[in-house]
């Protein structure tokens, strides 16, 4: 038995180096953890453009703002809104990362190897070198940047019309956080950022943006987009790297606002490429193969779903449960998400139609709003710029198909690294609670075992004793048997 496995009478208190565990997990999954020397040499040659020489619109005088996590330094998008006779016109500026990461350069090869930034909660492994993604290609406050702007008119009923995409010079006038914006939107002035309190124009901007987001959200859910209540767990560390707590990040009005805008921009991007007869890389969530289990879950709540996948009926069920059983809705959300299956990337040729995004009720959806963090978005940005300049697509369909499959595989690997590191941190905190009983919900059943997520704290582990006859979504009491912080093992037994 490993000396890092903790049992009820174990007094061992060794703290694993989570940063080193994260680095090893990245390498084990085939990721680069350092920028290759050849790519570093290219970074030194990158310079900001001379904006006076660019023949694009200059929108840098507008009151653009960004909303992101408190610790975010790689800012991909900024927003602006204005009243229009037909509704609210929104503008989403997306960092022009392609300007600095040239196709088939060494930096591009390194980014295409990892395809995504990996956020372990302990250390962040950026897809791009930090000088790029947190400086040159980041939409930092007070810095003029070149951006791809997605403009659209949002009507009062949430329809988007008059969409256009173009390059422009922008400047982030206010770098805001989810917490600060949520506090202001909810009227909690005591914890609101002074940037918002002291700027009436910025307050008006947030009101306009939130109104447009609410209209978009309402229309999307009426069309069958699914609404969930999920949370993210992140370790809280001391200055010496000791795990102090697990912080849960829940959705809030500000994060919903950004989500609504990004979804609208991603749909507009897919339509733009279709209209210009360009190929694309689509984000796809297919109709769930385990619809029968979703229907069985709904039946346990007294709701009947049709025998074939129906997003509108599923959303109606979720909406009812969110209102009638709010305390159990997070567990139900988790179960349905697991049963829906993972999203994936697919190459889409002009004139063809991919499977669509079942959870968003979208037939055409391309990731485009995070080119600093996701390679699929950088691919889409290059396709957009080629369409705007009336050039040939920079990728063949064979290349796009291979890239889509690679991005999907790397995203799944990144998720495993993130889960592993967070489970290592959780195992450290739970090692003093061996033998305790927790309420949980089954999150996975495969030929490799059965997994459960306990509710407080929200931690997932494997059931190693008495686990037969259970399925995803079942609520079960479990006893913590052992933990292994160095290997990210948290083992339970059914009570």
How would you describe this structure to a colleague?
With 495 residues, the protein is an alpha+beta fold. It has two domains: 1-30 and 419-495, Nucleic acid-binding proteins (OB fold (Dihydrolipoamide Acetyltransferase, E2P), Beta Barrel), CATH 2.40.50.140; 32-222 and 238-278 and 366-395, no CATH class. It is 37% helix and 24% strand. The chain has 13 helices and 17 strands. It has helices at residues 18-28, 37-45, 106-114, 130-136, 178-185, 194-197, 200-222, 253-275, 291-300, 311-324, 326-340, 375-388, 397-430, and strands at 57-58, 64-68, 77-84, 87-95, 118-119, 124-125, 144-154, 160-177, 232-237, 243-249, 280-284, 344-348, 437-446, 449-454, 459-465, 475-484, 489-494. Strands 1, 2, 3, 4, 7 and 8 form a six-stranded mixed beta sheet that branches. It has a five-stranded mixed barrel with strand order 13-14-15-17-16. Strand 5 and strand 6 (124-125) form a beta hairpin. Helix 1 runs antiparallel to helix 13 (397-430) and helix 10 runs antiparallel to helix 11. The longest helix has 34 residues, at 397-430. It is globular.
